[in-house]
Amino acid sequence: MLLPVPPPLSDLIAAYDASAPLERARTIPAAWYTDPRMFDLERRTVFARTWQMVGHTDQVRAPGQYLTAEVAGEPVVVVRGGDGVLRGFFNVCRHHAAAVLTAPAGRAERLRCPYHGWTYTLEGALLGAPEFAGVADFDKRDHGLVPIACATWEQWVFVRITPDGPALEAFVGAELAARVAAAGLGRLRWFERRRYTLACNWKVYVDNYLDGGYHVPHLHKGLSSVIDNTAYAIETGARWCEQSSPLSAGGDARTAAVRRGDRARYWWLHPNFMINAYEGVLDTNLVVPLGPDRTEVIFDYWFADTSPAARDRNLESIAVSERIQDEDVAICASVQRGLRSRAYEAGRLSVRREAGEWLFHRLLHRSLADGAA
Ligand code: FES
Ligand SMILES: [Fe+2]
User: Fold this and answer.
1) Cα 195–202–6 angle (5° rounding)?
2) Cα–Cα distance between 302 and 193 in angstroms, integer?
3) Would you tell me which of 110, 176, 181, 183 could form a disulfide with 240, CB atoms 3.0–4.6 Å apart?
4) Domain range list for the chain
5) CB of 141 within 8 A of CB of 125?
6) Are 335 and 27 in contact (CB under 8 A)?
7) What is the per-residue pLDDT across 232-268, written as a single tens digit (0 to 9) for each?
8) Going by CATH, does the domain composed of 52-164 fall within 2.102.10.10?
9) Cα angle for residues 357, 358, 364 (degrees, 5° grid)
10) Which CATH class, in words, describes the domain spanning 183-364?
11) Ligand 1 geometric centre to CA of 111 (Å)
12) What is the number of the ligand 1 atom nearest to the C-alpha of 117?
């Protein structure tokens, strides 16, 4: 039996018209959400070439503190050196490529590979290679951990695994940095991390996030009852989108009890990081592609008060967030099924609501077109 030949990747990328204005724009083609070749290309371009959030600054305050993560499918580690400098490396031993550090986070005197015991300093230099006497043309100085770019913004640690590109400060941009700084999120303390696996492409989740409150009144009745959706504002910058809405009094009591303040503010930083802030309540979302139709979303929950006395209230806030998340998980799976249907090729965008999605699609197109060239 002959299987249909998929079109060349370049045709698939060219099928999106990035020059159309919003009122004429179409969404990215359905095949971008389902084709395994797109998943690989995105790893090499979108994820390898952008700053990726890997943890928070409290995890790496003291010399020897480290955190590990995976970026674009590659293991990375961030460690505070004995000199106080925060550095990023590929978490790949120079001997036979095992992960040098295996815990999600911790503290070490030196970095010891569990496989054959090679050790590295906190600054990444190879210190010891047992039973390696007599190996020709082997210089320890050439076998340190391979460095990657590492920087912090607010309370978050970011890395970029390709050497070239803008500094994190320029990547975030002064405008977004000022808006987030004004929210004073640094006062909040980390409380808990939860992970959710979704049966959809990672872009379905980002699209859903960036639809400007379009789906909120239909899908999230509880949330919808406490925000004034008619006054929902959407602004975009070079690589970010801010969505914000005044919070209204009344509405669902359970939601209102933990979603307070004058406004809800939702920031997205291209391609996959979201910051959701209410008064004294913050969660971040990191969207991690696992496969063409499998995605993990990592939620970190932060609160103004993380004392034992505030525990029940914080857990209630997370429960409200999880109810919304459950609603999104179900709709994202539904969208993924629809994207696989022969009935659907691409859609249109609401001018009032979907400028964030439009920005996301154009940024993706640029990265993929550059990467495929
Ligand atoms: S792979 Fe690390 S010591 Fe061999
Ligand atoms: Fe939602």
Assistant:
1) 145
2) 9
3) 176
4) 52-164, 183-364
5) yes
6) no
7) 999 999 999 999 999 987 788 888 888 888 899 999 9
8) yes
9) 90
10) alpha beta
11) 11
12) 3
